C-alpha cells in the first residue's frame, strides 16, 4: 500500500528499508483519488516504535492512506522528545472539527490503574465520544480496547493474578466475520497485560459479539454489531523482538520475572525468538481497512455521523 506519512518521520526510513511502499507527500498530492484518512491515537510511551509497528501493518493494500498522529496533551510523555511530538503530532483541539475514515487507539501501560485514575482519562473519553460521529470505524488495541469497551459498553476489566505475557494459541468463535477472513482455525497472537475482560460480559451485551478467544489468554477479538468499534485485546502489531525487550526491561526492575510463554525456542532466552503471529496480524489490519473502512466509508467525509443518533 502507498502509505502516506511525513517524509521526515523516523518510521519512513525504516519502512522504506523493508521495501514497504511509503509514498512521498508530493506524489500523493498528485494522484487523482481520495485517500483514506486515518487517525492514530498513540498512547504508548515508546511512540516511535509503536508508530513504525502499526504503519507496517497498514502497508499491505492498494489503498492510499493519509495517517495523522494524535497525542493526549493532558499527559507528559517522557520517552520521546518534545521536538518529535511538536513536529509530527497533533492535539484533539486541532482535529475536533475533522472527519476520518478510520482511527486506531493503541494500548498504554496503565492497566493496573482504575480507568478514572488515568491522568488523561477525561481527554480520552472526550476523544472516544467524538469518534462516534467523526470517525467511520475505530480499532482499539490492548488497554485501548479495554478502555473503549468499558467506556462505550460498560464492560469492566479484571486484574489477573500474574502478568499474561507471551504468545498464545487462539481459536475463532465467529469464523464467518470478514475481520478474520483468511485466518487459520487455530492461530498465535502475543499478549502483554495484567488485566482482562470476560467473555460472558461481552456475550451478555446484544450490541457486542465475540470473534476470537484463547483458552489461556481469554478474549482476543470482539466488535460492536454495528461494526463501528473493534476491540483487540492483544498486541498483533508487535515486532519479533518486542516481548524479549519487555522481558529484559522487567529483569532490570525485578528479580523474579517469568519468561514470555511460547516465545523463546525451548524456553531458552539465549536463542532468538521466532514470530509466529505475523500473518494473522497482517490479515487483521488489512481486513479491517478493506471490509470495514474502505468498502463502507462515505466518499464525502463530511457526511460521517449523519445517521448517528
UniProtKB/TrEMBL annotation:
Assigned protein family: Belongs to the MetA family.
EC class (word): transferase
Name of the protein described by the UniProt record: Homoserine O-acetyltransferase
Species, as recorded: Raoultibacter massiliensis
MF annotations from Gene Ontology: homoserine O-succinyltransferase activity
Top-rank lineage group of the source organism: Bacteria
Pathways per UniProt: Amino-acid biosynthesis; L-methionine biosynthesis via de novo pathway; O-acetyl-L-homoserine from L-homoserine: step 1/1
Site (Important for acyl-CoA specificity): 111
Function: Transfers an acetyl group from acetyl-CoA to L-homoserine, forming acetyl-L-homoserine.
Amino acid at each position: 500500500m502507498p502509505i502516506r506519512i511525513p517524509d521526515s518521520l523516523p518510521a519512513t526510513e525504516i519502512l522504506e528499508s523493508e521495501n514497504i511502499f511509503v509514498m512521498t507527500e508530493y506524489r500523493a498530492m498528485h494522484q487523482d483519488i481520495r485517500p483514506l484518512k486515518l487517525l492514530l491515537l498513540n498512547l504508548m510511551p515508546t511512540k516511535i516504535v509503536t508508530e513504525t509497528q502499526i504503519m507496517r501493518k497498514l502497508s499491505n493494500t492498494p489503498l492510499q492512506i493519509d495517517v495523522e498522529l494524535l497525542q493526549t496533551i493532558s499527559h507528559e510523555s517522557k520517552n520521546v522528545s518534545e521536538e518529535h511530538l511538536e513536529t509530527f503530532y497533533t492535539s484533539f483541539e486541532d482535529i475536533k472539527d475533522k472527519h476520518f475514515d478510520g482511527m486506531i487507539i493503541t494500548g498504554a501501560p496503565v492497566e493496573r490503574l482504575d480507568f478514572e485514575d488515568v491522568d488523561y482519562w477525561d481527554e480520552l473519553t472526550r476523544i472516544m465520544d467524538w469518534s462516534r460521529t467523526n470517525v467511520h470505524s475505530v480499532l482499539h488495541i490492548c488497554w485501548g480496547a479495554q478502555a473503549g469497551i468499558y467506556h462505550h459498553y460498560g464492560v469492566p476489566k479484571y486484574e489477573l493474578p500474574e502478568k499474561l505475557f507471551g504468545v498464545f494459541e487462539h481459536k475463532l468463535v465467529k469464523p464467518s466475520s470478514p475481520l478474520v477472513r483468511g485466518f487459520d482455525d487455530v492461530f498465535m497472537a502475543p499478549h502483554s497485560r495484567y488485566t482482562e475482560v470476560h467473555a460472558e460480559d461481552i456475550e451478555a451485551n446484544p450490541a457486542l459479539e465475540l470473534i476470537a478467544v484463547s483458552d489461556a489468554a481469554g478474549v482476543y477479538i470482539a466488535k460492536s454489531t454495528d461494526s463501528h468499534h473493534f476491540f483487540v485485546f492483544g498486541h498483533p502489531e508487535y515486532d519479533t523482538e518486542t516481548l524479549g525487550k519487555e522481558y529484559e526491561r522487567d529483569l532490570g526492575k525485578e528479580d523474579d520475572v517469568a519468561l514470555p510463554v511460547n516465545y523463546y525456542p525451548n524456553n531458552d532466552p539465549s536463542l532468538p525468538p521466532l514470530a509466529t503471529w505475523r500473518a494473522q496480524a497482517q490479515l487483521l489490519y488489512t481486513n479491517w481497512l478493506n471490509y470495514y473502512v474502505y468498502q463502507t466509508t462515505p466518499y464525502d467525509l463530511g457526511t460521517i455521523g449523519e445517521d448517528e443518533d
